[in-house]
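Propose amino acids for all 535 sites.
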């Protein structure tokens, strides 16, 4: 008899396995893009409020806003104008009543995650949510500067809608749009007096927003002498810029930096040499010189962005600026130390920028900043050690033991997912701010949700724009942030007394449903994970 050979099933099984893996990767990629775009994408949610009779007279003219569920809302309010590129913001004025009932324009975006609708150089507007108007409320004012580095994002994002925070904590919430990327930080000072401030006009935009808030926020029930600036990621670095520039002195009283530092952005900004070289290379690529500078006003943003991006990469290689993610060189748009608008770096050799001396600072990050992987369930000790050995070799056991000491209430699997890229430079900023012996600095690490205590995961908690199952943590977070804005001390009922950080004490609040205060809690762990790093 002829034997009939059975077809082997393994190719089919392998195909199915590969298909499942591809689908999982696609889902992970889509989830990651959705997550990042939701935080940094510069999207403009479709929000339109019915115009009501809430007309206020402010700098620039009259405003009509909306009201929803006991919160007064004013969207897209012009605080200055930027009709020309690369020049400081100018005062704005309008005739009639400006209907502040829909979001305004945002800056052109560098990120591929961003949309294109409503983008313009003239994007200097802000959004306000308040429980009361013209009531002499003297409420704390919380001014949000968005993340997305210095190149992407907007004040119009879903997660930072301020109505819930304003209503629950009786504060005034403001979110600010301003210029980004090359439009904010291309240093053209070598090309004529008109562009003397061009390399830091993004900072001047933020200063202009604070000046407008100082002059007008009483109409919205806010206290102009109790203003807190806060921001996440690139927004945290913007807070450091505002604490460094003398142009903002007296316009705010407190700062909060959420995950806002890498080794090359936050503790330091660009040098003048770097900024000048980026401009030189950008202008060469655009074929624009002193004799045709007005062409800069006409060139498309995509051309400007392309030329600037290539220039940034070349400067990264010439100056050997290491990427925060390691393994390559990279450089990004940022303020530069010009000796005037930004007189020094935020972190000095033995302290902190002088303009920030009297400003209390709350600063911290999340345990798993860059762990965007799917899953993340518990692992046994053997699996954790094997993962650690693949990166750290013989130090694996010491790292696991030290992790357990640093985070006794967190699952061992997180030992492989501890962020050092942001935590280390943030600790440096914290220590140097304490060294200044000025206003106090309060340190935190959020572990809630670990191993998904990731980059930006605290934002919807603070603004109370989250799901019902996370509401208990949202209450804790929004109360801490509002309490710091109100008093300069973030301690709330149910929380241990939150000591300011000092070199000697090393106090860090570990934020979770059951928070606790640690002292030098993770410094030994950081020494193992990032040996030789100086704080």
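Proposal:
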């Amino acid at each position: 008899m002829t034997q009939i050979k059975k077809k082997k099933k393994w190719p089919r099984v392998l195909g199915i396995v590969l298909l499942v893996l591809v689908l999982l990767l696609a889902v992970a990629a889509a989830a990651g893009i959705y997550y990042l775009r939701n935080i940094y994408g510069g999207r403009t949610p479709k929000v339109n409020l019915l115009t009501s009779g809430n007309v206020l007279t402010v700098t620039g003219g009259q405003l009509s806003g909306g009201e929803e569920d006991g919160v007064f809302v004013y969207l897209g309010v012009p605080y200055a104008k930027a009709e020309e590129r690369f020049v400081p913001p100018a005062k704005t004025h309008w005739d009639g009543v400006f209907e502040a009932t829909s979001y305004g324009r945002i800056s052109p975006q560098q990120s591929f995650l961003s949309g294109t609708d409503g983008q313009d150089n003239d994007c200097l507007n802000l959004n306000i949510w308040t429980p009361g108007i013209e009531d002499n409320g003297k409420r704390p004012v919380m001014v949000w500067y968005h993340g997305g580095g210095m190149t992407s994002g907007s004040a119009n994002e879903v997660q930072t809608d301020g109505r819930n925070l304003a209503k629950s904590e009786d504060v005034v919430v403001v979110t600010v749009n301003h210029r980004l990327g090359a439009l904010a930080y291309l240093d053209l000072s070598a090309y004529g007096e008109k562009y003397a401030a061009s390399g830091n006009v993004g900072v001047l935009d933020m200063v202009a927003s604070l000046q407008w808030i100082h002059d007008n926020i009483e109409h919205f029930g806010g206290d102009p002498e109790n203003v807190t600036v806060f921001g996440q990621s690139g927004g945290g670095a913007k807070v450091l810029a505002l604490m460094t520039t003398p142009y903002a002195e007296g316009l705010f009283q407190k700062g909060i930096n959420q995950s806002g530092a890498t080794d090359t952005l936050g503790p330091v900004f660009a040098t003048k040499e770097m900024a000048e070289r980026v401009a030189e290379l950008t202008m060469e690529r655009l074929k624009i010189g002193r004799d045709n500078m007005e062409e800069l006003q006409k060139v498309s943003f995509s051309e400007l962005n392309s030329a600037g991006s290539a220039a940034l990469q070349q400067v990264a290689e010439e100056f050997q600026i290491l990427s925060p993610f390691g393994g390559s060189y990279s450089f990004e748009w940022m303020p530069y130390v010009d000796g005037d608008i930004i007189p020094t770096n935020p972190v000095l050799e033995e302290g902190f920028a002088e303009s920030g001396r009297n400003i209390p600072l709350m600063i911290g990050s999340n345990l798993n900043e860059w762990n965007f992987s799917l899953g993340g369930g518990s692992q046994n000790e053997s699996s954790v050690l094997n993962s650690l050995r693949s990166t750290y070799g013989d130090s694996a056991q010491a790292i696991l033991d030290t992790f357990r000491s640093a985070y006794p209430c967190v699952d061992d699997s997180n030992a492989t997912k501890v962020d050092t890229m942001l935590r280390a430079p943030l600790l440096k900023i914290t220590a140097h701010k304490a060294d200044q012996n000025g206003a106090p600095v309060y340190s935190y690490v959020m572990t809630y949700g670990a191993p998904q205590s990731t980059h930006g995961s605290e934002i919807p908690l603070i603004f109370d724009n989250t799901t019902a199952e996370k509401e208990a943590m949202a209450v804790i977070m929004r109360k801490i942030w509002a309490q710091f804005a109100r008093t300069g001390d973030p301690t709330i009922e149910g929380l241990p007394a939150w000591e300011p950080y000092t070199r000697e004490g090393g106090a860090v609040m570990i934020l979770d449903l059951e928070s606790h205060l640690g002292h030098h809690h993770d410094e030994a762990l950081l020494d193992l994970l990032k040996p030789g790093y100086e704080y």
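The mean pLDDT is 91. The chain has three domains: 37-270+331-359+458-492, 272-318, 360-457+493-529.
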